[in-house]
Write a structure and sequence with these properties.
Number of helices: 12
Number of strands: 12
Keywords: ATP-binding, Cell membrane, Kinase, Membrane, Nucleotide-binding, Phosphoprotein, Transferase, Transmembrane, Transmembrane helix, Two-component regulatory system
CATH architecture of one domain: 2-Layer Sandwich
Radius of gyration: 51 Å
Shape: rod-shaped
Subcellular location: Cell membrane
Mean pLDDT: 83
Oligomer: single chain
Protein name: histidine kinase
Helix content: 55-70%
Order of helices and strands: HHHEEHEEEHHHHHEHEEHEEHEE
CATH topology of one domain: Heat Shock Protein 90
CATH class of one domain: Alpha Beta
GO molecular function: ATP binding; phosphorelay sensor kinase activity
Enzyme class: transferase
CATH superfamily of one domain: Histidine kinase-like ATPase, C-terminal domain
Strand order of the largest sheet: 2-1-5-4-3
Strand content: 15-25%
Largest sheet: 5 strands, antiparallel
Length: 427
């Protein structure tokens, strides 16, 4: 933008100076030629009294004296055909002057000035002088060079002024762009200092106001999520008391463990809602341990519903760049979909294995499969919230992986959750 503004200023300056300097240069040329012609005419007219009254010898001496002074050829044509002074042919201009008409004519070597002298008793005499082309343009080249130099200086000054203005504009716009990118990268404390023209200062103020509103809205949303999550603690406490009152110690332990897991998830949700900056870049957990633990948890429900569970778990540890609570939520979402969207006694398979630099989790069932468009936040075809697959997808993408939903070899649904390796905090 700065270069374009400078180019625009240069183009405008050149056009304006051209429109001003070209006519001025032509005027200088014409004025110089006219002044030379006026001087030559005045010299020739100074001979009129002598040519009109004196004898030829005096006229000759006077002409020679004038030629020596003006260094310009002067000729006097007498009525009897005598030519005094510089030898010159009788040009058409001289013939017109011999009829009584004085004039100035152009020719190849310059201008000729002819003056008719009608005071002689023997007829009309003619005084002719020539203004050479060098005299007509004397000093014009230097004047043109001065004008050209003045034009170049003015263009350079205009470029300097335009560059200074463009620098202030571009600097203000660059600051706006930098702050907007910082806001896009979740640096919500970024602010821009209003600078530049009034319009840019207004945009800067609007951007700062927008950043403030984003902070307020995000803070309110986090507090609402945290409050909502905190409200779950009361029913969890009641559920824990109910679990502890069960007579069967095994059932009590199992339900208490489930309540503990749910309470950890709620605690993690509260903590995540109150965090201002994500820390997924430095998060790490053992996918083998997490998947094995969650499959064991869901296996109890699978046994109750007559589902056969096949677990193919690679030997751990298999570190991935996902926090443990997020990976637990993702695995629970995938396994929960199997129970929610397939009939009882539908077998399913869970596989976890290294896949290059990633870890691949596969959950496949022999149910009716998933229709297109399932992986979309809030979209559900089974009456649920539609957030399960979205939770899994966000966990995978946070680690640099991906989520794929398709159809397995047996015709049921197959979900591939590819998890990326742990990343250093500087990544």
């Amino acid at each position: 933008m700065r270069g374009r503004l400078a180019l625009l200023a240069a183009a405008v300056g050149v056009l304006v100076l051209t429109a001003f300097l070209v006519p001025l240069a032509l005027l200088v040329r014409d004025v110089t030629a006219d002044r030379a012609t006026v001087r030559a005419t005045a010299d020739a007219q100074s001979l009129v009294p002598v040519v009109g009254t004196a004898d030829p010898e005096i006229v000759r001496l006077t002409v020679e004296q004038l030629v020596a002074q003006s260094r310009r050829p002067v000729s006097v044509f007498l009525p009897d055909g005598t030519i005094l002074g510089a030898a010159a042919p009788r040009t058409p201009a001289v013939e017109l002057a011999a009829r009584g008409q004085s004039l100035t004519a152009e020719f190849d070597d310059g201008r000729e000035v002819v003056i008719a002298v009608q005071r002689r008793a023997d007829g009309i005499g003619v005084i002719r002088t020539v203004v050479p082309a060098a005299e007509l343009t004397h000093g014009v080249t230097r004047a043109w060079l001065l004008l050209a130099g003045l034009g170049i200086v003015l263009v350079l000054v205009g470029l300097a002024v335009a560059d200074r203005l463009a620098r202030s504009l571009v600097g203000a716009i660059t600051d706006l762009s930098t702050v907007s990118h910082r806001l896009a990268n979740a640096e919500l404390d970024a602010r821009v200092t209003p600078a530049g023209p009034a319009e840019l200062r207004e945009v800067a103020g609007a951007l700062n106001h927008l950043a403030g509103r984003i902070q307020v809205l995000l803070r309110e949303e986090r507090e609402q999520v945290a409050d909502l999550s905190h409200r779950l603690r009361t029913p969890l406490t009641a559920l824990r008391l109910e679990a502890e009152s069960l007579r069967d110690p095994a059932d009590a332990a199992r339900v208490t463990a489930a309540v503990d897991g749910l309470e950890r998830a709620v605690t993690g949700l509260i903590r995540q809602a109150r965090w201002r900056t994500p820390t997924a870049g430095a998060a790490v957990c053992d996918a083998a341990a997490i998947v094995g633990d969650r499959v064991a948890f869901w296996s109890v429900l699978a046994e109750d519903t007559g589902r056969a569970v096949t677990l193919d778990l690679a030997e751990g540890p298999l570190p991935v760049g996902v926090p443990a609570d997020e990976l637990e939520a993702a695995v629970d979402a995938l396994l929960g979909n199997v129970f929610a969207h397939t009939p009882d006694e539908t077998p399913f398979t869970v596989r976890l294995a290294p896949d290059g630099g990633h870890v691949l989790l596969t959950v496949a069932d022999e149910g009716p499969g998933m229709p297109p468009g399932t992986v979309r936040r809030g979209a559900s075809h089974g009456g649920s919230t539609g957030l399960g697959l979205d939770i899994a997808q966000r966990a995978a993408e946070a680690s640099g992986g991906s989520l794929e939903v398709g159809t397995g070899p047996e015709g049921g649904a197959r979900v591939l959750l590819r998890l990326g390796p742990p990343r250093s905090p500087n990544d």
